């Protein structure tokens, strides 16, 4: 991944000597492109770059600001002042430049407090490198919902006029929001009506799988039926499914309250965590749901997540998303859409489905493999910017040669996403390491060398 050395902490973090006539010019020159880095966050602490102006500092202006920094237990890394360029008054009007560290949850309050005693307060943070989870427990903060399809808000939702259904959904929302990393996944008792909906979906879709689903899906589906309680008469429990996945690919499930923001959802994939809804669609519309539900997750996503190659592909999209700017998140979620949700692949001379949006939709699965839609080869550069359709069937589907090829193409694409750092996923601690010092790179390399040595030895033994 491309490294921008202007982001190395401590470099260029001061007012420029040759600062131009405005504060913005000086600030832009002094900050460089990537200097305010949220990846400096450690143990919930964030590094902020602040600039502000204090009028007439002699009259206790600075002591008020200093008290605010003290009150929030701010650790100051760098503090610099100079005479305010825009001041027409006295030499006591100063501009300040502060690099400081504060607890993540206090960052906004610190800035707001500072605004009460200083002028022109600017914080340089969110628009540089967005916050991203580094430990699996950080996923407790990644549950921001896109609420447009919820039964409480969407007049077109089949459950909008059913108070019982909305009550049931509130129950599932509470379950998801009260879940914390490490908790056992909640087991749910489904009603007879919910089970009947599942049965109808299960029967209809499983009749299409032998002819429409890819081999990896069929193999996993068979295993799920054998070992994980997949059957038409009961809805599988997330806990059992999660255990099954963990043994096969290291993926695990986490309850989600609904459709999550792309950034949060993709971030969880980086940790091999799949955020899964647990409620079921409304019984009046068993073959269609405007939002993800457990039929979509369990029948669409789960079987594919049991495949090693596909699991790596999913994690790679997640890793690429960490710390990416909004424009890149948009492209990655479009890639996700045309692959993990609506992807097709070549297999033994024919085209098969591997996308969850297809494998959980009877109508679109048939449509996607008819001769009606347009097919294009999977090419991340093209796919990432292709318009998508979330109201009706896709007019265009992208076909992967195979998962290995799709994975390699995605990895090349991810390398081109501009970030000032390289990330490494540590499977032992399930955490993301920012490789921002030579020592960290050396330690990671050492581990890889040992693994490689072991594999070479194994190869020698069996050849
Ligand atoms: Fe999905």
UniProtKB/TrEMBL annotation:
Residues 117-463 form the Biopterin-dependent aromatic amino acid hydroxylase family profile domain. Transmembrane segments: none annotated. One of its GO terms (biological process) is dopamine biosynthetic process from tyrosine. Pathway: Catecholamine biosynthesis; dopamine biosynthesis; dopamine from L-tyrosine: step 1/2. Residues 1-21 are annotated as: Disordered. Its EC number is 1.14.16.2. Keywords: Catecholamine biosynthesis, Cell projection, Cytoplasm, Iron, Metal-binding, Monooxygenase, Neurotransmitter biosynthesis, Oxidoreductase, Phosphoprotein. InterPro entries: ACT-like_dom_sf, ArAA_hydroxylase, ArAA_hydroxylase_Fe/CU_BS, ArAA_hydroxylase_sf, Aro-AA_hydroxylase_C_sf, Aromatic-AA_hydroxylase_C, TH_ACT, Tyrosine_3-monooxygenase-like. Fe cation binds at residues 296, 301, 341. Its cofactor is Fe(2+). It comes from the Eukaryota. Belongs to the biopterin-dependent aromatic amino acid hydroxylase family. This is Tyrosine 3-monooxygenase. It comes from Alligator sinensis.
């Amino acid at each position: 991944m491309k490294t921008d050395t202007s982001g190395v902490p401590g470099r260029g973090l001061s007012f420029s000597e040759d600062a131009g006539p405005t504060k913005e010019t000086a600030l832009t020159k002094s900050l460089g492109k990537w200097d305010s880095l949220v990846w400096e966050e450690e143990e919930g602490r964030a590094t902020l770059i602040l600039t502000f102006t204090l009028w007439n500092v002699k009259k206790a202006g600075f002591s008020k600001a200093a008290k605010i920094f003290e009150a929030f237990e701010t650790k100051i890394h760098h503090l610099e002042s100079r005479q305010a360029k825009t001041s027409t008054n006295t030499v006591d009007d100063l501009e300040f430049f502060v690099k400081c560290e504060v607890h993540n949850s206090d960052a906004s309050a610190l800035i707001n407090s500072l605004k009460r005693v200083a002028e022109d307060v600017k914080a340089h943070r969110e628009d540089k490198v967005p916050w991203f989870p580094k430990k699996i427990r950080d996923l407790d903060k990644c549950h921001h919902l896109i609420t447009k399809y919820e039964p409480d808000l969407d007049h077109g939702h089949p459950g909008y006029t059913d108070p019982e259904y909305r009550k049931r959904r509130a129950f599932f929302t509470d379950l998801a929001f009260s879940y914390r990393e490490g908790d056992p996944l909640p087991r749910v008792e489904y009603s007879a009506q919910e089970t009947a909906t599942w049965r109808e979906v299960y029967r209809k879709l499983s009749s299409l799988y032998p002819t429409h689903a890819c081999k990896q899906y069929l193999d996993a589906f068979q295993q799920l039926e054998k070992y994980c309680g997949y059957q038409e008469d009961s809805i599988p429990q997330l806990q059992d499914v999660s255990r099954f996945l963990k043994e096969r690919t290291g993926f695990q499930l986490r309850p989600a309250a609904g459709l999550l923001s792309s950034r949060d959802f993709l971030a969880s994939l980086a940790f091999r965590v799949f955020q899964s809804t647990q409620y079921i669609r409304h019984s009046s519309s068993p073959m269609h749901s405007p939002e993800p539900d457990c039929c979509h997750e369990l029948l669409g996503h789960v079987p594919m997540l049991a495949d090693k190659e596909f699991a790596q592909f999913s994690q790679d999209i997640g890793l690429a998303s960490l710390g990416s700017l909004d424009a890149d998140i948009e492209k990655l979620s479009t890639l996700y859409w045309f692959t993990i949700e609506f992807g097709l692949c070549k297999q033994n001379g024919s085209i098969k489905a591997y996308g969850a949006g297809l494998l959980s939709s009877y109508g679109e699965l048939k449509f996607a493999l008819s001769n009606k839609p347009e097919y294009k080869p999977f090419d991340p550069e093209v796919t990432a910017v292709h318009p998508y359709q979330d109201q009706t069937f896709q007019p265009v589907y992208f076909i992967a040669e195979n998962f290995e090829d799709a994975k390699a193409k995605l990895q090349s694409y991810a390398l081109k996403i501009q970030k000032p750092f390289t990330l490494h996923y540590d499977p032992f601690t399930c955490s993301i390491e920012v490789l921002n010092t030579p020592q960290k790179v050396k330690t990671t390399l050492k581990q890889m060398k040992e693994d490689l040595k072991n594999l070479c030895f194994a190869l020698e033994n069996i050849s």
